[in-house]
Amino acid sequence: MDLTPKETKSELSQSKTTEQRLKFFMQDVTGRALVMMENATQGQQGIAMDLVQEAFISLHKSYADKAIDEWYPLFYTILNNKLQDWRRKEARRAQPFSLFKKISLDDDSEEILEIEDQQQLNPFDTLDQAVTIEEIQQAIRQLPVRQQQAFMLRAWEGFDTQTTAQIMNCSEGSVKTHYHRAIQGLRTALAHLNPHIGGSSHEE
User: Fold this and answer.
1) Would you say the pTM of this structure is higher than 0.85?
2) Where would I find the H helices in the chain?
């Protein structure tokens, strides 16, 4: 499964038909999208695949005429919405008497840290070569879902803070906070594997 950040889109742009462009787009993004959904659903591969496939179908149905560059944020916005819908259904299934109660899933209302926007982070830059993809993925899976999303969208997909906020339907301050805490959480979770990482940073 491809966990590397997306490369240049020049190859995608060379395709002429919508089907060809969509095929290249799916090949480019599917691996990372599946990883994100598997993490968010605690390893439920079937659910993750369904969410990604549904997002592709919706993208093709509603935005087939858009440019390749526009597909990336659109796709992840659709995928985020489908994930949130699934999480709400799961929460209601776990709380059968909450039909008329508002289900709150996200922690965007938590205290927003006054921190500068952090530079793009390649997850492999600060980790020892001995740390495996599986160990990194397991550490990401332990993070709260919104921290997972902020980290994956910024570090793997390369979206800036503004675009990530639009995809996640939250403020830029929330994205910065989620991303900052995700990095701290990953450093803490993986510190025993690489003593050079050190503890969490204090950038508040």
Assistant:
1) no
2) 10-13, 18-40, 45-63, 68-94, 133-141, 145-151, 161-168, 172-190
